[in-house]
């Protein structure tokens, strides 16, 4: 029974909870048992609060029995990336500098999930301050990929991807700055969606790069991702950049896509993301799986054509100026004065020394690297050449997208040029690590929605296909992804993750 | 104590031409802070007006206060500025414990208001001060250094931070450099701040209580030899927090810099601290070691794009500004420029206006506020407006004098009672029994006693020396402790000594 409950997707879980075939406590306990059994190997959770989770679940069961009105996700467990601030639950953003901090408030995303009746299982591991593509930059040790424990689960939302792919949570919240939802989803065989910038509140997400950060769903099915997006999305007056506009119904878009009819949909394949003349660094197995996915979209009735977005070649350089610049400023608040770690305050040192020692010991190497990069890029005399130029590139990328979307409904590419690589392989070479984000950066810089959906295996490891859409047209991502998912499931005769479960 | 050598001011202006400029920070009187909902009230227990946003807890985000943006635009309009059609906040990055985010949210190269001016009057001359920019930012917290002798960080045992002030909306008003005012520079600088303060009060955007730090000035001063085509190197005197200090700091810097220049010493571009007690300045950090603030547009806040129709509406809704108001009142009251200047400098214009509005004759209202009340404020070392008497009470007092209920001398005693919190002037008249004595038996008895007590004076008066009557009047006034009306007493004495 336990194993069965952890292998259900959320739609199936909701049905089981509603018809009484499983209680919220049973569902929660099943996941807690699975975590206890398997997370020693994966290290996907930084904090699990079993007692609170069971109490929350028991409350749902009691209210259900009493016939009270329940939230839309009542009794459904969820895991949150540790970048999401949770009241009374430790929140570290994967950093030593926040070890022991107990937040006095909830992020909007956490509050909305709570209000919907979800049961918080725990907080998931991540690259420190979401800086990384492998979760090797966590101060609390790397997370392992359920498909191959010697490999990375992607990053920075690697705890969230490993927990869901490893059946330790039915779904999770990730955050995506340059690909941190999509790439870990791709390399663990999940669906991960980065919403349109501004469509999910950033209030209570520990900021990495304010103009890029977005929270979004990581799930085993497109329908589940769409459901979570509906729950966490929508205008939030606490976030000035939150968009105050009604969103299209995502669950309905996924349902429509799952019917398998994409006639009338025009799909653009971006040449600069793995296409002819731009395939360097892309693994052949990844390109093959991607091509198979594109062929399936065509078979479902989509019109497929190649599209060129020349400025995308500049995305990596622009991103690694903008994101570190904003990060260098966002991370200034970690000075040891008000919360978190404080080092050297023994009365013999002045304030500057205490701040410097706190930051020197509290931050890891990658965080320091980006703070230094960003500080340099914003410095007087360099600002225009670096930050200023990067912003211009950002404008060009937006124009390329706009021109492309004048002709096509969605754009597709591989989500990552490579499958999950072995732990430790790239830590000494930041540039090769940064290349893992090559395909996801353009949509991040333009603030556009993009989803990663599994499209096949390469060397026995998952490959993701990315679907990008115009701003606020997240529904197109869900529709196209759901169509591909349905076609692949039908051809396979089971779910994508079923292949992983079958190995166990 | 300062050991600066100073040149005599007259010698300074004989040989040097000063240029000054001011950066004025004004705390807006909005109900809530700039980027969160916390209250802005002054004097609360430390760190009680705080929340995740103004404490810069991880994950917290700012949302701009619309009332503060509106107030800033109104200040800009009152100063004749252009209002930006699109502009952004910017982050000013530096580490200090009172700046919780590690950056101050401010504005950099895209201020809300630019290119205005303010005309100020000194000794009947009008001087135009050009306004470079008016922008919106947030205040810092306050550090309290404990255990040292000076209250400064040097020598302190430990420091405490109060974040109640952190995030209070702050408007920065920056002038362009003001050249060509010569010896008047200290007074023009002061008059500028005074006039700015009046405008802010008229707009109702700030309490402008300088002693509470609602309005703080950084004063830039430089000197160049008279006739020089280039300006000298400036110093920036920080946190000059009273009108008098603005004037003194410019004067001091002029005298200090002139002495150095006379000796051939180069002026260092540096920030300086002003000392209220001595009126001197001392060196702070030099600009050579200044921080690179790494300004960049604040990505957590959407740009501000004030709608043109809305700005036009704000323009047309501006209240009567102080200069126009003074002109109007001067004409209504029929007074000279100099008296109006006196009223303004004494901080009495608003009080007199309110007193007149409460029914007093303008001349009487001016007389009370500039005379007796100014004297008492000075004796008590408080601002006129902080005396425990309202314009309405002063108007009531004027009414009692006009009606003959009290004379001027009694009125001062009534004022004593009002200031002592004994109630309204009428209540004090009653409780202290201060009304003028009519032609009563009691007064008659006092008059008779005076006549009986001074037969020699009575003889002189009867002998034609009527001026001697004054001595008898004085005796009666003394006997009645001032409560009698002198004219009535004189008439009664005349009747009884000379008459029938």
TrEMBL record, chain A:
<dbReference type="InterPro" id="IPR023631">
    <property type="entry name" value="Amidase_dom"/>
</dbReference>
<comment type="function">
    <text>Allows the formation of correctly charged Gln-tRNA(Gln) through the transamidation of misacylated Glu-tRNA(Gln) in organisms which lack glutaminyl-tRNA synthetase. The reaction takes place in the presence of glutamine and ATP through an activated gamma-phospho-Glu-tRNA(Gln).</text>
</comment>
<feature type="active site" description="Charge relay system">
    <location>
        <position position="81"/>
    </location>
</feature>
<comment type="similarity">
    <text>Belongs to the amidase family. GatA subfamily.</text>
</comment>
<feature type="active site" description="Charge relay system">
    <location>
        <position position="156"/>
    </location>
</feature>
<dbReference type="GO" id="GO:0005524">
    <property type="term" value="F:ATP binding"/>
</dbReference>
<keyword id="KW-0648">Protein biosynthesis</keyword>
<keyword id="KW-0436">Ligase</keyword>
<dbReference type="GO" id="GO:0050567">
    <property type="term" value="F:glutaminyl-tRNA synthase (glutamine-hydrolyzing) activity"/>
</dbReference>
<dbReference type="GO" id="GO:0016740">
    <property type="term" value="F:transferase activity"/>
</dbReference>
<dbReference type="Pfam" id="PF01425">
    <property type="entry name" value="Amidase"/>
</dbReference>
<keyword id="KW-0808">Transferase</keyword>
<protein>
    <recommendedName>
        <fullName>Glutamyl-tRNA(Gln) amidotransferase subunit A</fullName>
        <ecNumber>6.3.5.7</ecNumber>
    </recommendedName>
</protein>
<comment type="subunit">
    <text>Heterotrimer of A, B and C subunits.</text>
</comment>
<feature type="active site" description="Acyl-ester intermediate">
    <location>
        <position position="180"/>
    </location>
</feature>
<dbReference type="GO" id="GO:0006412">
    <property type="term" value="P:translation"/>
</dbReference>
<dbReference type="GO" id="GO:0030956">
    <property type="term" value="C:glutamyl-tRNA(Gln) amidotransferase complex"/>
</dbReference>
<keyword id="KW-0067">ATP-binding</keyword>
<dbReference type="InterPro" id="IPR020556">
    <property type="entry name" value="Amidase_CS"/>
</dbReference>
<dbReference type="InterPro" id="IPR004412">
    <property type="entry name" value="GatA"/>
</dbReference>
<dbReference type="InterPro" id="IPR036928">
    <property type="entry name" value="AS_sf"/>
</dbReference>
<dbReference type="InterPro" id="IPR000120">
    <property type="entry name" value="Amidase"/>
</dbReference>
Automatic annotation (TrEMBL), chain B:
<protein>
    <recommendedName>
        <fullName>Aspartyl/glutamyl-tRNA(Asn/Gln) amidotransferase subunit B</fullName>
        <ecNumber>6.3.5.-</ecNumber>
    </recommendedName>
</protein>
<dbReference type="InterPro" id="IPR004413">
    <property type="entry name" value="GatB"/>
</dbReference>
<dbReference type="GO" id="GO:0050567">
    <property type="term" value="F:glutaminyl-tRNA synthase (glutamine-hydrolyzing) activity"/>
</dbReference>
<dbReference type="Pfam" id="PF02934">
    <property type="entry name" value="GatB_N"/>
</dbReference>
<keyword id="KW-0547">Nucleotide-binding</keyword>
<dbReference type="InterPro" id="IPR023168">
    <property type="entry name" value="GatB_Yqey_C_2"/>
</dbReference>
<dbReference type="InterPro" id="IPR018027">
    <property type="entry name" value="Asn/Gln_amidotransferase"/>
</dbReference>
<dbReference type="InterPro" id="IPR014746">
    <property type="entry name" value="Gln_synth/guanido_kin_cat_dom"/>
</dbReference>
<comment type="subunit">
    <text>Heterotrimer of A, B and C subunits.</text>
</comment>
<dbReference type="GO" id="GO:0005524">
    <property type="term" value="F:ATP binding"/>
</dbReference>
<keyword id="KW-0648">Protein biosynthesis</keyword>
<dbReference type="InterPro" id="IPR003789">
    <property type="entry name" value="Asn/Gln_tRNA_amidoTrase-B-like"/>
</dbReference>
<feature type="domain" description="Asn/Gln amidotransferase">
    <location>
        <begin position="350"/>
        <end position="497"/>
    </location>
</feature>
<dbReference type="Pfam" id="PF02637">
    <property type="entry name" value="GatB_Yqey"/>
</dbReference>
<dbReference type="GO" id="GO:0050566">
    <property type="term" value="F:asparaginyl-tRNA synthase (glutamine-hydrolyzing) activity"/>
</dbReference>
<comment type="function">
    <text>Allows the formation of correctly charged Asn-tRNA(Asn) or Gln-tRNA(Gln) through the transamidation of misacylated Asp-tRNA(Asn) or Glu-tRNA(Gln) in organisms which lack either or both of asparaginyl-tRNA or glutaminyl-tRNA synthetases. The reaction takes place in the presence of glutamine and ATP through an activated phospho-Asp-tRNA(Asn) or phospho-Glu-tRNA(Gln).</text>
</comment>
<dbReference type="InterPro" id="IPR017958">
    <property type="entry name" value="Gln-tRNA_amidoTrfase_suB_CS"/>
</dbReference>
<dbReference type="GO" id="GO:0006412">
    <property type="term" value="P:translation"/>
</dbReference>
<keyword id="KW-0436">Ligase</keyword>
<dbReference type="GO" id="GO:0070681">
    <property type="term" value="P:glutaminyl-tRNAGln biosynthesis via transamidation"/>
</dbReference>
<dbReference type="GO" id="GO:0016740">
    <property type="term" value="F:transferase activity"/>
</dbReference>
<dbReference type="InterPro" id="IPR006075">
    <property type="entry name" value="Asn/Gln-tRNA_Trfase_suB/E_cat"/>
</dbReference>
